[in-house]
């Protein structure tokens, strides 16, 4: 028998053994502490296919391997496990809360070339999206303002301002939404096999992704030196990565 419960933070449907009834366990997805009820939750209350409190670092252990009790939930797990497969407790400092191994070697950081290529792809996509949205907005403004020659210059100036705002917002949302998503990467970064993390290798928040995006203004102001720094800093961080406390790593 097992107990089905949903994580109160991320909403992930989870499944725990009866031995955890009345105890607390950690969600393997987001790391939040999840209280396990004494009685199993009715099946109709679980909308997703439940996932067990499991991890590859332990599930591959053979029956004859050395075992140890988890200090968090007391369940028996492999002695060499970096993370409890029942409650999600992390024992290995090299493993982040998301279950991914933290970055440790310089070969795991994205190269300057990969970052440049990803930025080139993203720049083209952002410009296309902004151009389409700007064209739509310009058409709407022109239709509302009418074709009067007296106001033509004012309408054109206003359309340019709107176009600039659209470009700014498009670039911001394109980067921040994708880099703070589960993929942790924009389309360009995904194509090049790289992603953005915090300094511990975890997924960054939308706020942190926003700060990173607008910090690029500073990187570009000083003759693009802030960008070039990614080629020779220890962790291959650009200036905006340092300002936002982020890393760009190989996926």
Structure description:
- With 251 residues, the protein is α+β, with helices and mostly antiparallel strands.
- The protein folds into 2 domains: 102 residues, no CATH class; 144 residues, no CATH class.
- It is 39% helix and 14% strand.
- The strands form 4 sheets. A 3-stranded mixed β-sheet has the order 1-2-5, with no helix packed on it.
- The longest helix is centred in the middle third of the chain and has 34 residues.
- The protein is elongated, with a radius of gyration of 24 Å.
Name a few traits of the molecule.
single chain; alpha+beta; 2 domains; 3-stranded mixed β-sheet; two-stranded antiparallel sheet; 7 helices; 39% helix
Structural domain count = 2
The separation of the N and C termini measures 37 Å
Tally of DSSP β-strands: 9
* SSE run: EEEEEHEEHHHEHHHE
**Main sheet record:** 3 strands, mixed
What is the gyration radius calculated from CA atoms?
A: 24 Å
**What's the number of helices?**
7
Question: What is the mean pLDDT?
Answer: 80
Contiguous uncertain segments of 5+ residues: 40-64
Percent of residues in beta strands? 5-15%
- Which class do the helix and strand fractions yield? alpha+beta
Inertia-based shape: elongated
Strand order of the largest sheet: 1-2-5
Helix content: 25-40%
């Amino acid at each position: 028998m097992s107990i089905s419960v949903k994580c109160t933070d991320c909403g992930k449907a989870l499944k725990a053994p009866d031995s955890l009834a009345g105890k607390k366990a950690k969600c393997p997805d987001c790391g939040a502490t999840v209280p396990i009820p004494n009685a199993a939750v009715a099946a109709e209350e679980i909308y997703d296919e439940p996932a067990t409190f499991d991890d590859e670092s332990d599930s591959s252990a053979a029956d004859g391997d050395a075992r140890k009790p988890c200090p968090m939930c007391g369940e028996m797990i492999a002695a060499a496990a970096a993370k409890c497969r029942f409650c999600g407790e992390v024992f290995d400092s090299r493993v982040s809360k998301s279950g991914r191994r933290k970055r440790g070697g310089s070969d795991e950081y994205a190269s300057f070339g990969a970052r440049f290529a990803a930025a080139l792809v993203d720049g083209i996509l952002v410009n296309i999206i902004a151009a389409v949205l700007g064209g739509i907005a310009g058409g709407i403004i022109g239709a509302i303002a009418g074709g009067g020659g007296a106001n033509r210059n004012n309408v054109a100036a206003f359309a340019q301002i709107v176009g600039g705002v659209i470009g700014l917002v498009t670039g911001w949302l394109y980067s921040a939404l994708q880099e703070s998503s589960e993929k942790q990467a924009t389309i360009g970064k995904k194509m090049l096999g790289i992603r953005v993390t915090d300094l511990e290798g975890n997924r960054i928040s939308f706020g942190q992704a926003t700060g990173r995006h607008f910090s690029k203004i500073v990187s570009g102001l000083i003759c693009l030196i802030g960008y070039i720094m990614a080629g020779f800093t220890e962790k291959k961080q650009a200036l905006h990565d340092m300002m936002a406390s982020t890393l760009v790593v190989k996926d």
